[in-house]
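Example for tutorial group B:
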């Protein structure tokens, strides 16, 4: 199976603090993986390195075999390396339809035209509606974003990421702050994504992680401590000692 995303001895130091310590990993195309670890383990720093928000101190990053280490964040996004954020980032005055249309334009490198002109572009409108339909939001397409329930706002954030036509999608706690029932809906939406999209989920909710992931990477003190199936990770005594604790029901 081909490699969607890989790193080679990736490191980031902040003065004397080593936040990411020579991490080498490989995500296979179409994989559903999760990255877990205690607070301060380096998970968000690793995602920031992958997406180009911060530069590595050393090491390299590859997207589908292409070295993207030197590419800025917007060029990585256009190449297919897309992320969502732990903290909601939306344009509240816009409707979901308007926001997704803008995201589609940005992904194509097109200039932003006034909405009265955009609304005459039938192909763009239909594509935006299809994206919203894929996350269950087409019925709310004309509502102001600020009035949407919080769970719907998180789904809209996922829709904006999908509008970027990702090859690799990095999801930083996509269900943070939502009710349990809403988190299940978000998880089910992510699980329905086509296998043309490789997914790496960064999450603290172990119930979500073990129901979603085919593979789990455990990060502790800037390093990958364990990497395997949910059952392998749950049974790893190093993981229990460092993070999970107790027994974990992984099902099946």
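The residue assignment follows.
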């Amino acid at each position: 199976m081909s490699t969607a995303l890989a790193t080679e001895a990736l490191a980031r130091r902040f003065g004397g603090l080593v936040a990411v310590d020579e991490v080498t990993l490989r995500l296979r195309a179409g994989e559903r993986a999760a990255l877990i670890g205690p607070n301060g383990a380096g998970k968000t720093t690793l995602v920031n390195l992958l997406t180009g928000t911060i530069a590595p101190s050393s090491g390299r990053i590859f997207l589908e075999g292409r070295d993207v280490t030197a590419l800025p964040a917007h060029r990585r996004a256009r190449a297919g390396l897309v992320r969502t954020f732990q903290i909601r980032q939306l344009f509240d005055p816009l409707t979901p339809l308007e926001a997704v249309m803008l995201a589609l334009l940005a992904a194509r490198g097109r200039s932003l035209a006034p909405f009265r002109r955009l609304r005459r572009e039938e192909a763009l409108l239909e594509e935006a509606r299809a994206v919203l339909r894929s996350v269950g939001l087409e019925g709310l397409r004309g509502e102001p974003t600020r009035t949407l329930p919080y769970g719907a706002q998180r789904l809209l954030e996922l829709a904006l990421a999908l509008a970027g036509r990702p090859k690799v999608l990095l999801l930083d706690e996509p269900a943070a702050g939502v009710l349990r029932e809403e988190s299940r809906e978000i998880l089910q939406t992510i699980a329905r994504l086509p296998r043309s999209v490789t997914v790496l989920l960064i999450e603290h909710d172990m119930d979500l992680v073990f129901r979603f992931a085919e593979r789990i990477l455990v990060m502790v003190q800037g390093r990958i401590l364990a990497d395997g199936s949910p059952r392998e990770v749950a049974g790893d005594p190093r993981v229990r000692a460092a993070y999970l604790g107790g027994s974990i029901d992984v099902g099946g």
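The first helix runs from residue 43 to 51. Compare this with the pattern of hydrophobic and polar residues in the output above.
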